[in-house]
Write a structure and sequence with these properties.
Elements (H helix, E strand, L loop, with lengths): L22 H5 L1 E9 L3 E11 L5 E11 L4 E13 L2 E6 L5 E7 L1 E3 L2 E10 L2 E9 L5 E8 L4 E10 L3
Antiparallel strand pairs: 1-2, 1-11, 2-3, 3-4, 4-5, 5-6, 7-8, 8-9, 9-10, 10-11
Length: 161
């Protein structure tokens, strides 16, 4: 009788983010953000993940938005991030909260990454998160449908880093 194959040893943690289970903890604090929305706008600002008594992180971004036509204005957005096994869930900052998407994080070469799809009828949001070895991370939202059609890409860099 053949012995079952032994499971693969776990991959070593990535220096900046650790493992899928520690990414959530690494988000807390302040980040500089740079966003582009292809052909439509860009944004520079700050995002802060604030720990709450519930164990969640409150995400708030504030920044200056520049439209393709040159107009500028201030903008902000809020979400709640919740730890899940091997990742996190992102909720709209509403009362009661509503799930935007759940991200399961996996190793993808030298990064940790996760993705999810959210149907906001009639449009679809395909979102991807990448946690990079230098400690930064990116979020991309490809939005497709009859009302919206754009790609939003945001780079987050630790403030003071």
């Amino acid at each position: 009788m053949r012995e079952p194959a032994s499971p693969l040893p776990p991959l070593p943690p990535l220096a900046a983010w650790g493992t899928a289970d520690t990414v959530f903890d690494g988000l807390a604090g302040a980040w500089d953000l740079e966003r582009t929305i292809e052909g439509q706008a860009s944004m520079s600002g700050v995002a802060v993940f604030t720990p709450l008594e519930t164990g969640m992180l409150k995400y708030r971004e504030e920044g200056r938005i520049r439209l393709a036509d040159g107009k500028e204005f201030d903008g902000h957005r809020e979400y709640f991030f919740e730890r899940t096994p091997g990742g996190f869930a992102v909720h709209f900052a509403e009362s009661p909260t509503r799930l935007f998407h759940a991200i399961g994080i996996v190793r993808d070469g030298d990064v940790l990454a996760g993705s999810a799809t959210h149907l906001c009828t009639p449009d679809t949001y395909d979102s991807g998160y990448r946690f990079l070895p230098d400690g930064s991370f990116t979020i991309r939202h490809a939005v497709r449908g009859p009302r919206k059609d754009y790609l939003s890409a945001t780079v987050f860099t630790r403030r003071g880093g």
